[in-house]
Amino acid sequence: xxxxxxxxxxxxxxxxxxxxxxxxxxxxxxxxxxxxxxxxxxxxxxxxxxxxxxxxxxxxxxxxxxxxxxxxxxxxxxxxxxxxxxxxxxxxxxxxxxxxxxxxxxxxxxxxxxxxxxxxxxxxxxxxxxxxxxxxxxxxxxxxxxxxxxxxxxxxxxxxxxxxxxxxxxxxxxxxxxxxxxxxxxxxxxxxxxxxxxxxxxxxxxxxxxxxxxxxxxxxxxxxxxxxxxxxxxxxxxxxxxxxxxxxxxxxxxxxxxxxxxxxxxxxxxxxxxxxxxxxxxxxxxxxxxxxxxxxxxxxxxxxxxxxxxxxxxxxxxxxxxxxxxxxxxxxxxxxxxxxxxxxxxxxxxxxxxxxxxxxxxxxxxxxxxxxxxxxxxxxxxxxxxxxxxxxxxxxxxxxxxxxxxxxxxxxxxxxx
Length: 417
What we know:
The protein is mainly beta.
């Protein structure tokens, strides 16, 4: 019995020695080469020379941890190329997180201009051209999961020159009738309180502030002349130009039914509706594709050639007409504010919803209305009920566009600069 006990003790001690020796071997053989990926990019330029770090590295999945650290030094990496944009995109290495990353930006005179997290840096705009010093501490936190992963940070210091220039970017250089187009004015330093002003034969452009500049929208209606159209944008004392090419769309033909509207109905419609073409908020209220406002089939598509009962041409459709079931719910196509909720002689129960930046939905011939003027509506919120048909019109300013394209995230309204 005594020999068995001694033998078991020797086995335990021998096993412990092997495990301990293995852990010690692994512990002391963890080096800087075993640390996580360290290359990050700023404005497309690589930073891979950290001046310091502090990492906790797992051994055998986290049975033991080892800390490796290097006190930050004073070395500064100078970027090879100047930054020519109003902001500098930071791209972290795989495994790093924004929540574990902080930045400190200073002017060449040592004044602190920015101090905060990576999520805040996304919206930062340089105040002016010049030389800057940026300190970045980027890494990841302990997730608490097992097997464990290394956590900690690298610290980088870089010097760079900002030499930005205002620029105009279109969502697309060519569009078709019925489309929308976006105009992004970027490269603007500091706080631009005055929006750009666009001059074009395509209509009024409504601009909203975004990170590093402004974005505006154009409607390209069914009757826009094909060919090249010049857009001139004035901002900060500069005049910038871009060219948008418009192509023709193919449209169907629809025969109208019913009699002509009375002069009184037409006059009331103009008095109630036309004013909204130049009114509204410059704030963009939509975030994604628009929803069809009702369940049903499209009887009359946008741009359809309208033929009167006597066979004469009666123009083209500036909207969609749905054939639906009376009593079906009508929903808000996108978030917005109700500007009009009223029964009109020409269009029956009528709603006008402002989605911002000149974009508005006009909904005609509802059975009833569930909202009133001033109501803030969410996308897909029930705003009324349908009759046999429902007309949905979307305009950017006074320019009509094809609503069906907005339900497919097609066009400039969904452009991300």
